[in-house]
Design a protein that fits this description.
With 261 residues, this protein is an alpha/beta fold. The protein has one domain: 3-Layer(aba) Sandwich (Rossmann fold), CATH 3.40.50.300. The chain has ten helices and eight strands. An eight-stranded mixed β-sheet has the order 3-4-2-5-1-6-7-8, with helices on both faces. Helix 1 packs across helix 10.
Length: 261
Amino acid sequence: MKKIAVYGKGGIGKSTTISNVAAVMAGQGLKVMQIGCDPKADSTALLRHGKPVETILNLTRQKGKKLALEEMVTPGFRGVLCVEAGGPPPGLGCAGRGIIAALEMLKEKGAYERYQPDVIIYDVLGDVVCGGFSMPMRNGYADQVFVVTSGENMSIYAAANIAMAVENFKRRDYAKLGGLILNRRDVKDEDKKVRQLAEDIRSRIVGDLPRSGLVAEAEDLAMTVVEAFPDSSMARDYEKLTLEIERVSGIDWPGDGQTNR
């Protein structure tokens, strides 16, 4: 079982990217679990055609210890196992503590033993890397951290902070930094800025996603690009990114080298 955490500034396209990667992996024959660690609980929406997934925190508040594992895990496109941690009502609690509680609940209920996913992908908001938001980096959770960024200054700043957090955790045998995913916004000097960031944090760019109107069109259909436009060049870009993430993370998958489209 390989465990990956993907971070990035809010609004950078992280959940869209992860959902497409999860869809590609599932098409390869891998069993994938995607865990949304954002209070908005919308990480897996595109894998569910916009249908919401009940969050672990809401279910825990309603049912307590009687909560069944099957209620926390919902299948999506190509069988991707969709999980949303959720969060407290605005102003009434700490979202980071909510993530900790949700991940501990999954562990307590034996989710990983029961479903035996080949790959777990944590989708984590990266504006603040502290408390529960750093939980997926910790020992026993993710093995690799990937950061989605563009060439926008605030995105670069957030990515640098995430990389610094990974570096600070290095001595504790926590997750390693797998690399940057460039999700282009076509801003001035974007290549130069992201290449410089990769150099500064002693990392690499593992994927380069062009700005494409197909992404918004697919989102309007409440689908991943991989599902809505499987023969498009954008779908190929997500496949290329997925293969590189798998290479860096040491993920082997069954099949003959062709993704099931």
